[in-house]
Design goal:
single chain, 117 residues, mainly alpha, 0% strand, elongated
Length: 117
């Protein structure tokens, strides 16, 4: 049978290991968040906006669904992307120009496949 002092030591060691791992976790989060920039978050936002209508367009192409995305949603998404594209042109941001241009190309190709099927 273990005595009280050895149980206390084991509990203390366990708690100190948990505390150390939490400190390491906090440090990793601080380090990773400092490397994250507003530009990379903006780029991710553009990628997610481009992907907003792709599931429904692919569903139409592969005859899985016959539900079109509502016209107002598509209009606002495209209008927002056009504004992001103009912003990228004014800032001479090559990554966003290429990303948004490629997204326009993919979306136009998907819409063309639906219309000219």
């Amino acid at each position: 049978m273990e005595d009280i002092s050895s149980i206390k030591k084991r509990i203390f060691n366990l708690v100190s290991k948990i505390n150390f791992s939490l400190i390491n976790f906090k440090e990793v989060i601080k380090l990773k968040s400092s490397q994250l920039s507003s530009e990379s978050v903006g780029w991710l936002a553009i990628m997610f906006i481009h992907c907003a209508t792709i599931p429904s367009l692919l569903g139409l192409i592969f005859a899985v669904s016959d539900n079109l995305p509502s016209l107002d949603v598509v209009f606002f998404i495209w209008f927002g992307l056009v504004l992001f594209f103009i912003k990228a042109l004014l800032n001479k941001d090559i990554l966003n120009i290429i990303t948004i241009g490629f997204g326009f190309f993919i979306q136009a190709a998907l819409l063309g496949m639906i219309v000219f099927k």
